[in-house]
Amino acid sequence: MRICDLTLAYTETSGGIRTYIDQKRRYIAEHTDHEHVLIVPGERDGAARDGRLTKIEIQSPVIPGCRPYRFFWQPAKVREALKRSAPDIVELGSFFVSPWAAFRYRDDCRAVARPCLVSAYFHTDVAEAYVGAPLRHFLAEGIEEISDTLAGWGHKLTDAIESGAEATFGQIFRRCDLTFAATETQAARIREYGVEGTRIVPLGVDLSLFSPQRRSNEWRRQHGIGDEDLLLIYCGRLDTEKDVMMLVDAFTRLMLSEECTHPGRRSLCHLMLLGEGPLHTQLDRRAEQIPRLHVRGYERDRAAYATALASSDIYVTAGPHETFGLAVVEAQASGLAVVGVDAGALRERIAPAIGRLGPVGDAEAFAANIRQVAPQRDAMGTAARAHVLATGYGWERTFELLLGIYADALARVQPMAVDG
Prior knowledge:
Layout: E1 2-6, H1 16-31, E2 35-42, E3 46-50, E4 53-59, H2 75-85, E5 89-92, H3 98-111, E6 117-121, H4 126-140, H5 148-175, E7 178-181, H6 184-192, E8 199-200, H7 217-222, E9 230-235, H8 244-255, H9 258-261, E10 269-274, H10 280-289, E11 293-296, H11 302-310, E12 314-316, H12 326-333, E13 337-341, H13 346-349, E14 355-358, H14 363-373, H15 377-391, H16 395-411
Parallel strand pairs: 1-2, 1-5, 2-4, 5-6, 6-7, 7-8, 9-10, 9-12, 10-11, 12-13, 13-14
Antiparallel strand pairs: 3-4
């Protein structure tokens, strides 16, 4: 099989989706005879091949306010890239322009009796995270102090627009031959889009790379963190849908408490944010005013990233729109307790024995959960690692399942009837 990932969510600083694709390409190269094609928007047109792995970039503009992410804007060029690379399966990771090029390519293949599938993996709840949530904040929550009536109309308008987005994306998903989700909860969410039959393919984690054995007090000292200090860490996109500013607000509340600032105590609190995104500059400015707030860039070295996780104490995440929470599982595999919010896939990732969940957007409650977890962090971290091992979150399992589904579905594809 020749499998193609067609996505805009693959850049030098991407998170979970890039990890998924990189691990897929690695698995295909090392464990199969299949080929893989990656088609992404880029600064200029280009292509590179490494054995059975191909990467094609299509010149595309930057998404305003979301550099370095770019968006496909010429479906004809996407379709031409598909024709040249000739995949048997196209897996969509973007749902704006590229799906229509993929559907046309599939029709062209089947018209000449060549089997072809188009699938979609529900990595991101686009309608909620990028349509409903930002509009709700802008149209409703932002004007509640001015007028309850206007805020009410804002909520109604937001619900209508989000429903329209669900209908649009649902139409795309229904045209796909297969849809995938990482969890049962996300499969249920896709049903709200009007799509049935979604297959569950959990994501994985490199269990040898992400391990408590990578913990390093030397790494902590290099970053100004004492052996007895409490290090909170977040790894991911620095953007509004991740609610990273709430993490900073919760951290400032911790700093004001006796647990972190009482004279004579050896333990200090630190918060480290690893990642890139449109809020980086704003977070840098806050770090100038807030002691022990460390804002770092995206860590491209996976081994260094794994060391950073294992050398921390508690993983924190406030984004309510996670569809799997890959960084959370990586943190748990590294032996960390997790404090998060009671929303999205975090409900499935964080049980009381290995962390705490609190209300969305409540910095005070978030800080209280950190205080509660801190004394139990070693026991919770050990339990978190054991949970990940017991659940079997290995990438081999992910791709054995995915490629098996693809092979079975491809064998059942029937060519289109051609008039004349």
